[in-house]
Each structure stands twice: as C-alpha cells, then as structure tokens.
Amino acid sequence: MSKPDFYEVLGVARSASKEDISIAYRKLAMKYHPDRNPGNEEAIERFKLCAAAYEVLSNHEKRSLYDKYGHAGIEANGGAQFHDINEIFGAFGDLFGSFFGGGGRRGRHPAHGNDVQCNLTIDLHEAARGVTKEISFRRAETCKTCHGSGSKPGKAPSRCPYCGGSGRITQSTGIFSIQTTCPKCRGQGAVITDPCPDCRGHGVIGQPVNREIKIPAGVETGTRLRMQGEGERSREGGPPGDCYVFITVKQHPLFQRDGHDLTCRVPISYAQAALGAEIEIPTLDGREKITIPAGTQNDDVITLRGRGMPLPRRSISGDLHIEVYIEVPRKLKAEHRKLLQQLAELEGEHILPERKNFFRQLGDFVSEFFSEKPDKKEG
Fold first, then answer.
1. What pLDDT shows up at residue 76?
2. Which one of 12, 46, 101, 130 has the fewest beta carbons within 10 angstroms of its own beta carbon?
3. Long-range interactions of 85-92: CB distance < 8 A, separation 24+
4. CA torsion, points 124, 128, 129, 133, in degrees to nearest 10?
C-alpha cells in the first residue's frame, strides 16, 4: 500500500513556505485534536499522521530528503511516525499548546535530550561498497562532581520563582490555554543559586565519545546518517538525543560522479580511433578490457550499464560512462613523422566529404567577398 503524500496530508503545495505549513498544521491539529474527538480512533490516527507530516515538512533537512527520495529518504533517517499522543504534545506543545485547559490526563511529556553531530569523510570506493568506520564526537555527560544537579556539593537548586516550579507558563486566550516553556528555568522548574565549580551549574561536561557506524553502499556527499540514542541525555528524564553523521565523499582522480553514474575520460591514439582497438580501462571492480569500434570519434561515449554507484538499499546501480578522447603526441620519432606525412599525402588525394564540403564553402565565401568589393575610382 502506498504511503500518503505529506503535502496532501496538510493540504499545501510543494512550494509552500514554512509559515504556510505551520498554519495548515495548526488548523488540522485543532480539527482532529483528541479532546474534540473523544473515542474517535480515526481522528486520533489522522492527528498522528498530520503531526508526522509537519515533523518532516517543517524541518529543512528532512524536507529536502523527502522531496528527493520520498518516504524512503525519511525512513533511512529514523522515520517520521508518532505512536503516542504524548510524543506529539512533547514535540509540538509550544506550537499549539493544549487546546482545552492544559495537559490534563496526559500530563507533560519529558523532552528529548539534545542531538549532536559529526562529520565523516570517506573515499569513492568506500562509498561504493559500504564500510564500517569509527567516528569521534563530543557530547555532554553528567558531571561527576555534582552528579548532574548543577549545584555545588551539599547545595540544592531553588524552586523557580517565575513559574513556581512547574517549568511551564500558561497563558489564556479565549477558550484556548497556551502553555510555553518557562524562560527563567527553561522548563526545569528550578534555578541554580550555588553552581558546581566543575560544570559551572550546567550539570554536564563535554566528553569525547568513540563509536562505530556502518555506512551503507551508495551514499553521496550530504548524506545524513542517524545513530539513535547516541546524543545527550535528557535532564527531564526523557529519551536521549541522537547523533547525526554527515557524509562527505572525496573526489576521485579518475571518476567523476553525477548522482549514481560515473564518468571516466580515457585517452586513445589516432590509430586506435581509426582502426579500432581493445584497451584497458579502470572500473570500481578493477581493470577491465573494452573494445573501441573502428571510426570512433573524439568525445564518443561507451556506456557500461550497471557499473556505476549502487543506489542505497536497492539492488540496482548507475552506469559507468567511458568518454574517449584522441590524444595527439607532442613529439614524434622520425619514422612516425614519415608515416604521417605519407598519410597526409594520401588524404590530400582522397579528401573526406566533410573536408571537401568545408573547402567548397570556403571557396564560395572568398568568391562572394571579392565580387562584392567595390572598385577603386580613378584619379
């Protein structure tokens, strides 16, 4: 069964701005909100689907992946489906709050920990075959001095005076009650009055982390891989964040990449182009022999189907294009020069159609030029 188009789910055009997407989502969230549709499972599923669509289309990177690869691009980076209503309120609570008087029976879902990222550079052969690499990145770990409290040992955080310890600020606008994160304590419900000397009140200290990651075959520069749960811990007791690995594929000295196709320029001699030959070329699998047909012209292309880069998580590959060019020697041996002179004399007697046509046109141009030139008037 085909999956629904996220743009159609929200009822927006593919060129819609982020603001248009937010407006459309808020309207649909109000329409299918569980408090407005008690006991209606179809409305709840629709509510989840709208949230999944918004989660993708409101994020620039995820939207780019979706526009390019569809649902497959999103699923390769962790998917975009909510299974629990509380996950939606935890993710987008600040966007539309609780429509009918606060969290009520659901309560406030603990926030995820922060995501981290790192960059990884691989070569073309590693990108073609897939590879397991060790990566290094930094993430905030719990401070061992204060055990994450942020306060000096023996001291404790004080209740936030701004939100009264709830971590949320509630504002009423008509029938709606909008909850936002407390700007004073940032949702913690408490403030540090005697900070820990090691972490300076943050409760965490940046630490280096080493992990192995499996790179699938066919990745290209700009690919983002997700390591779930390898981000920072949530100070609210929620799930940890993720680590996102951004891939760069180094340029290859022989192959130029265009998506999943490869191009390789290979020199041949005039004799090989005219008479045909069997030459050796490079491929991702090593050296291979191909046949150059007699009469091959400069910049002709020979395509080897399925010998390019593999498509991620699919059993097909792009093509390898061999672009030949005729290499003219800069220095000639005496014997070579003599043979070429003989060839030139032979070609002078048997002019090729293209050359004959060129010289005929040149003659017509010269005749026309001199016939139209005015004669000089006598004294």
1. 63
2. 101
3. 85/34, 85/44, 85/47, 85/48, 88/47, 88/48, 88/51, 90/238, 91/51, 91/55, 92/29, 92/51, 92/54, 92/55
4. 50
CB within 8 Å of 3: residues ≥ 6 apart? 71
Using alpha carbons, select from 125, 126, 113, 309 the residue that is nearest to residue 213: 126
Predicted TM-score (pTM) of the model is 0.56
Q: CA angle, 279 as apex, 276 and 281 as ends, to 5°?
A: 140
Q: Which residues of the chain have pLDDT under 70?
A: 1-2, 76-110, 172-177, 235-237, 348-379
∠ CA 192-198-201, nearest 5°, is: 15
Amino acid in position 255: F
| CA separation for the pair 203, 150 (Å, rounded) | 4
Please tell me the distance from the alpha carbon of residue 22 to that of residue 94, in angstroms, as a whole number: 12
Is 115 strand, coil or helix?
coil
How far apart are alpha carbons 139 and 163 in whole angstroms? Answer: 29
Residue 226, Cβ density class (10 Å: 0-12 exposed, 13-18 middle, ≥19 buried): middle
Amino acid identity for residue 309 in this structure: M
Where does residue 130 fall: left (phi above 0), alpha (psi -120 to 50 degrees), or beta otherwise? left
Q: Tell me the pLDDT tens digit for each residue of 104-162.
A: 334 455 677 889 999 999 999 999 999 999 999 999 888 888 888 888 888 888 888 88
Longest distance between any two alpha carbons in the chain, whole Å: 118
Instruction: Residue 16: name the closest of 47, 51, 58 by CA.
Output: 58
Average pLDDT, the chain: 81
Provide the token pair at 4. 């629904």
Between CA 379 and CA 376 the distance in angstroms is 9
